[in-house]
Amino acid sequence: MENFTLDIDADGVALVTFDVPGRSMNTITAKVMAEFPQVIERIKTDPAIKGAVITSGKASGFCAGADLGEMGTNASGAAPKSQDEALKAQFDGAFSLNRTLRALETCGKPIAAAINGLALGGGLEIVLATHYRVVADHPKIQLGLPEAKVGLLPGAGGTQRLPRLIGVQQAASLILEGKPSSPKEALKMGFVDEVVAPDQVVAAAKAWVKDKGDPVARWDKKDYRLPGGGPNTPGGAQVFMMGNALLRKQSHGNYPAQLNILKCLYEGLQVPIDAGLRIETRYFLKTMATPQAKAMIRSLFLSMQELSKGAARPAGVAPFGVKKVSVLGAGMMGAGIAYVQALAGIETVLIDQSQEAAEKGKAYSKTLLDKQVARGKMDAAKAEAVLALITPTTDYAHVDGSDLVVEAVFETREIKADVTKKAEAHLRPDAVFGSNTSTLPITGLAEVSVRPENFIGIHFFSPVDKMGLVEIIMGKKTSQETLAKAVDYVLKIKKTPIVVNDSRGFYTSRCFGTFVQEGLEMLAEGIAPAIIDNVGRATGMPRGPLEMNDDVALDLGYKVREQTRKDLGDAYEAGPVDTLIAKMVVDLGRFGRKNGKGFYDYPTDGPKTLWPGLAEIVQPKISHSSAELIAEIRTRLLYRQAVEAARCVEEGVVTDPRDADVGSILGWGFAPWTGGPLTLIDQVGAAKFVETCDRLAQKYGKRFAPPKLLRDMAEKGETFYGRFGKKAA
Questions:
Q1: Residue 17 phi/psi, 5° resolution?
Q2: Which secondary structure element, helix H or strand E, spans residue 392, and what is its range?
Q3: Any idea where the domains of the chain sit in the sequence?
Q4: Which parts of 321-354 fold into alpha helices (H)?
Q5: With pLDDT > 70 as the criterion, what percentage of the chain qualifies?
Q6: Which tops the pLDDT comparison, 140 or 693?
């Protein structure tokens, strides 16, 4: 066997080591699926084996789950002759791991898991099918079922075994949210049995097999009772009643996987586990067939994985070893950038106008590190070592020796030009200068640089420590070597890079701006603000557009508008929204969340509320919602962003659909269930999308007008991934 080795010790305990060759992490591939039953048959039939321990041969983890890249293949390898045969073949293929794991837990011999690294998805489902679970006590180990995050549900017993171990309420929360647990959290909840030192995990598992081994799973015993009660008990019924209401509130019906997870739990826990596993498989297949699952798997797993490994990096450029980086500006962005750099082991110089400001920027890292230590995710010595990598200063001489500079000062050309000149005076010829601007064109900023070929946009998102995306922007003179170095830097700090070409607002800020702008247009039209934001959240966006305006800051939006007006001159087209924002910012001093007053009021002692005075500025004309109004607002908010993304492709700002879709979800929270704006257009169909945009343009304005590219695609029946995807390149 390629993926498993089996060694029997003197006590008759077989150590099964799971080790997929050529990979840094174990995943459940087709070959693993073919070999696993052989392992189980050997354990079951070999009289020399008294029991077994399953562990991993990888230092990085136990198993990260199924190989999603292989999903959807015909397990039988033969074309079905009828629809019934097709359905049966599909079910048999999807049920195969369930069948294998059920054979493991009913093989008649005690099986323990020695979990020496992360166990996620199918990896945890293997663990749950053993009779005893020992996990190493390590802060980086995660145990969980994250399938819901990519539009799926656990398909190898996760919805059936986890609730049978820890009860419906705890299990439902973990599965619906896809939230991982630490070893100690898992022990407390009850889905692992023992937490030991990393070098004792196999020994502890073997000791259980040898001394106490019980070959019968809890749910196969006659006296078994579901913890907390099943769906037909008062307690269990209440969990499902509340769960259904909460699910609707949080998902707004956008995610079929979550609804099907609840169905698996409700139906499967009323029957014996064998029937429950069949129920799970049926819902797994039903979920996999949804457009949401297909979209989310591609964008949130496959594309993100490819981009996170440097898919956008130009070939033929030597690896760039980033050892020292200077950050200009110690405000919230600069401080966050300094933190993630130091965490990645990069020597960091943090420069600001005053020593006090620079020290304050470093203190931000100390606060985050102290939290890590308090939560047991980092020891104090490591935290001190990370903090020691950050040097706060006002002296640009410290830039000497830097491999890269990241400028993170205010969004004004004059200030950016000043710090660029000061830093470049100390940079060696091959170093990279990156600007963290979110709106100002890189080509224009590079005009003050003595080496524009080394000048590039490196756009972070706030808060930097939590946001996983970095948008890399190519100026007209930026070299491919500089791009490669920027990608290497982003990968080193463990972020996902997307690469776009220069334009005003680039890709993310430009498209995100259409969401908040459309909300303002609706407000100016007289739609009640509560309706706008409630429907905005119901589309799957993290906030409503007015809330998002407050979060970003109304005065920032005003400054960007004024800069754009100045840059475009007579070409700038003012509208009622300009008057509204000027009134809020200039006349009323309402800047948003940052000063406690925007479209919402932000009291210190309670939740935010819509500002009552808003009705005096914009008189609501539509204050009652209807199904038609909700559908129209939803369409406007999603399509306005999507048509702008299509324009970015037509203009060459975005050249890879993966960048557009992954960037939209990670960057500004574009409704994840769609898979991103280009996937949304592909699934709707270019012809239907264009037809709807033409209707919206006629009714609301030319901002909805589809670009020529979309009309061409509609005529030819093309998709973005078919025309611009990696296979078409």
A1: -105, 120
A2: strand 390-393
A3: 4-217+225-289, 324-501, 509-724
A4: 332-343
A5: 98
A6: 693
CB 174 within 8 A of CB 157: no
- Is residue 362 a contact partner of residue 342, using CB atoms and an 8 Å limit? no
Assigned CATH for 4-217+225-289: 3.90.226.10
- Which residue matches tokens 């048509």? 643
Instruction: Grade residue 412 by pLDDT with cuts at 50, 70 and 90.
Output: confident
User: Rounded distance, CA 69 to CA 29, Å?
Assistant: 9
- Domain 509-724 CATH class label: mainly alpha
What residues act catalytically?
459
Return the SS3 of 678: helix
Identify any residues that bridge with 347 across adjacent strands, giving them in sequence order.
Answer: 324
Of 276, 266, 171, the C-alpha closest to 219 is 276
Q: Are 226 and 164 in contact (CB under 8 A)?
A: yes
pTM of the model: 0.89
The answer to whether 457 touches 472, Cβ cutoff 8 Å, is yes
pLDDT band at 251 (very low <50, low <70, confident <90, very high): confident
**Nearest Cα to Cα of residue 547 among 533, 526, 558, 561:** 533
Q: 3-class DSSP state for residue 500?
A: strand
- Residues sharing a CB contact under 8 Å with residue 559, sequence separation 6 or more, in sequence order: 411
b/e code 517-530 from CB counts within 10 Å (16+ = b): bbbbbbbbeebbbe
Give the per-residue pLDDT at 90: 85
State pLDDT tens for residues 129-171. Answer: 999 999 999 988 999 999 999 999 999 999 999 999 999 999 9
Say which range, 62-71, 258-267, 432-441, 619-628, has the weakest mean pLDDT.
62-71
Torsion-angle region of residue 579: left (phi > 0), alpha (psi -120 to 50) or beta? alpha
Question: What's the rounded Cα separation, in Å, for the pair 316 and 136?
Answer: 41
Q: Quick one: 324-501 is in which CATH superfamily?
A: NAD(P)-binding Rossmann-like Domain (3.40.50.720)
* Residue where the block lists tokens 């297949």: 285
Amino acid 185: pLDDT? 95
What pLDDT score does 79 carry?
52
| Length of the chain (residues) | 729
Residue 438 has pLDDT above 90, yes or no: no
**Nearest CA to 506 among 436, 555, 557, 563?**
436
